[in-house]
Every structure is written in structure tokens, then in C-alpha cells.
Write a structure and sequence with these properties.
With about 325 residues, the chain is of the alpha/beta class. It folds into two domains: about 130 residues, Nucleotidyltransferase, domain 5; about 170 residues, 2-Layer Sandwich (Nucleotidyltransferase, domain 5). The strands form two sheets. The protein has a six-stranded mixed sheet, sandwiched between helices. α1 runs parallel beside α3, α5 packs across α12 and α8 crosses α12. The chain is globular and about 50 Å long. The model has no long low-confidence stretch (mean pLDDT about 90).
Length: about 325
Amino acid sequence: MWSKSEGMFAALDIGTNSFHLVVAKPVETGFEVITSEKEVIRLGHGSGEMKMLEQSAMDRGIAALKRMRAIADIHNAKLRAVATSAVREAQNQNEFIKRARKEADVEVEIISGIEEARLIHLGVRHAIALGDSRMLMCDIGGGSTEIVIATGENILLSRSFKLGAVRLTDRFFATELLHPSAVGSCRKFVRSMLSTIAPQVEQLGFEVAVGSSGTIEAIAKLIAKQNKQPDPKSFNRYEFATNDVSKVVDLLADQPTVKQREKVFDLESSRADIILAGAIILEGVALSFGVTKFTYSDYALREGVLFDTLQRRDLLDHPDGVDPALA
């Protein structure tokens, strides 16, 4: 159980698009975030089907790991680092793992798509009060999209698809000028991939659909702005309609270049080039599985890693409750 003597701990999410670090301390209600850091690395960028990590991307990644290791050390925090799609698919993953260990003193744990989905679900259910409601969870990363159907802690369906905002941008939107057929081709590709589990999703059913990740947060913020809604203090539990997602896809596609999308919609440059692919994936999830409304979760993989670490230490007093920090 929880004890005041427990020290700091940290979670590092080594993603395809960005690296996320959270340093926290255990408290009776779960954890309290001390500091967090995010760096856009594009570890999987330019690698086609992500069969290889490019040396330049690997160099950026190792440099970021060094900086994040230093932050964890400042707080004397025990670091747990997990790597997702880009690293787990790369044929030269061992080189990255060895360099991370030798150059950054970071031991990297490569997690499967199913384990990634489990950890994201663990984070999400501590961010949103669902009780016994059956949930469909969608997390769109740079290299993969995780789909979970669960009731409470019981996962009924878990799948990881090679559908990511960076991956599909490289495949369909690599040219500076948007090709007229690219959006339609991407939409068809996403629907064809997701259709493989549509019968199972329909059979299981769900009452609420939850989306997590930076891509979905960016889409939610864009929808709020388009609907002229006041900017909330936190987007956690923000609800938006599937129709609004389709509108966002069309609005983004109306701008033929990334620079125009960035300017017109006031997007971060690191998000402007991949948000169209991300929005198409989210739209595909909605249309494939009959989602009419999404609820955004501020917690995802890194928070799931923190909660999982607490559970391993037997320090989580409310394994099924919502984190009071988000209540």
C-alpha cells in the first residue's frame, strides 16, 4: 500500500512521432505529476513501412533520451521507458536499444501492440468515470492505432493496427502539394483495415467511445475552435460529434499545402503535416464502428505506465477509480 517513503518515479513513452516524459511522486490517490517533457522526434519518419530506423532519426532519439534521463536524475526518479510502433517494427531495433543503454543510460522496454493497448486503457479509465459502461477506446499514435472494447478493467477486445498519423502521412501525403485523390485513397485504406474487426465490435457493442493521444487532442481543439466554443481549462472529457470530425477532414483537405493548413488553422508546425492523416483515421474508426460521439481522455500511454508501475508496487489504493487530479 501507499507509503510516504516511496520515491519519485517516471514514465517515458518512446513513440513514433514524439517522446513523452512524466516524472511523478506516489500519493494516496495515485500520483502527482512533478514535471513533464515532450519532444517531437519523428523516430519513424521517412522509414516507409518502418522496417528500419534511419540513422538521423536514431541520433535525434538518443539525444532526446539523454535529456530526459537527465531530468529524471535531477528528481532522483526511477525511470521506466517503453517503446512502441517505430522501434518494435524496426529490423535495427537492437542498435537503438544498445545505444539507448550505452549512451543515455536508458533501458528500453519494447512493448507489443496489445500491451500498448492495455496500458493506454489503464490510463484512460483513470481519466474518465465510466463505471460499468462498456467503452470503445481509440488511441491514434504516429505509427499505430489501438482499439479496445472494455467494461471496467475487463478488456473484451484489443487490437493494434498499423494505422498511424506519421505512417499514413508518409504513405499518402508525402508530397508538398496535396494530390486530389490522396484523401479518398487514404479513407478507403483506413476503412479496409478497420473492417476486419467491425463484426466483433458490432457483436460486443459499446455505450461510450473514448479517444486519447495528441492527435485526437489536436482534432478536438480544432473542432472547439470551429464551433466557436470557449477554450476549456482542460480538454479531458471534452465531447465532440463524428460529423465534426468529417468536417475537419474536409476543411484540412481544402488547404492544398501543409503551410496553408498551419496558417489557416493556427496549428503547431509539428502537428500540421500529420493532422489530416490522423483525422482520417479517427473518422474511419467512427464510420467503421458506428460511433456518433467521442469523449477525449487526457490520460493515455504514459499515465498508463505510471499506474501500472504503482500496481506493481502495490501502491494503488483505487485501481478502478478516476484520478482525483482530473475529477
